[in-house]
């Protein structure tokens, strides 16, 4: 999502309207507080005796996406890091940003996916 924000020119919006980044920070903070309240509300019970509710894959994806979208650090990284590698004379800026951002996201998916798969395999091996 951060790549699409970057490609659509929302960097310009953040530069022109700095309150947008503050608003994103507050939304992210509210979301983290909500997650913390959920954790506190379910604490105090013996986790060995408590059955955990299975969440669907779709709900896990939605929660992860919301967490990622409200994380100002990842947006700031994309906004600060990728534009320095763009050459306006080499072609459409939006296309360059799309390619660079997609490469960055693909590398993250491969590396974190490998860690997840290895963790699952190792967890099964441990029993």
From TrEMBL:
Annotated membrane topology: Multi-pass membrane protein
Keywords recorded for this protein, A-Z: Cell membrane, Membrane, Transmembrane, Transmembrane helix
Protein location: Cell membrane
MF-aspect GO terms: homoserine transmembrane transporter activity
InterPro entries found in the cross-reference section: LeuE-type
Main location: membrane
GO annotations of cellular component type: plasma membrane
Highest taxon, organism lineage: Bacteria
Pfam families, per the entry: LysE
Protein family (similarity comment): Belongs to the Rht family.
Protein name: Lysine exporter LysE/YggA
Organism from which the protein derives: Klebsiella michiganensis
């Amino acid at each position: 999502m951060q790549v699409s924000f970057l490609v659509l020119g929302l960097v310009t919006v953040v530069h022109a309207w700095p309150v947008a980044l503050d608003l994103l920070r507050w939304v992210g903070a509210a979301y983290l507080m909500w997650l913390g309240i959920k954790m506190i509300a379910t604490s105090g019970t013996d986790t060995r005796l408590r059955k955990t509710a299975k969440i669907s894959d779709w709900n896990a994806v939605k929660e992860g996406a919301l967490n990622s979208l409200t994380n100002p650090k990842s947006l700031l990284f994309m906004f600060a890091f990728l534009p320095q590698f763009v050459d306006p004379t080499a072609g459409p800026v939006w296309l360059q940003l799309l390619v660079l951002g997609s490469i960055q996201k693909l590398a993250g998916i491969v590396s974190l996916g490998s860690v997840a798969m290895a963790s699952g395999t190792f967890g099964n091996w441990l029993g």
